[in-house]
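Marked as duplicate of an earlier ticket. Keeping the data here for the record.
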Amino acid sequence: MNRTRFRNTVLGIGATAAALALGYFGVQQLGRNNMFTIAAAVGGAGAISYVLQKPAQPKAPSTDPEPQPTPVKTQRRRNKS
């Protein structure tokens, strides 16, 4: 694990713990609906940070040609008269 990823992980865990503590103690003063708002904000922030931290993986162009399907020969049946 490189240094940047470790730092982002620690900061993410710390921010999540701080948001949970704020929500827990804040609900006692602000009410239940604000707790749901805080939880939604934390979830949204977590989703955004996950998307932003995902490393971009460029698609390498393939040097192999696409395989051509092999033709299938069919035999005709002759009608017996």
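See parent ticket for discussion. The CA atoms of residues 38 and 70 lie 60 Å apart.
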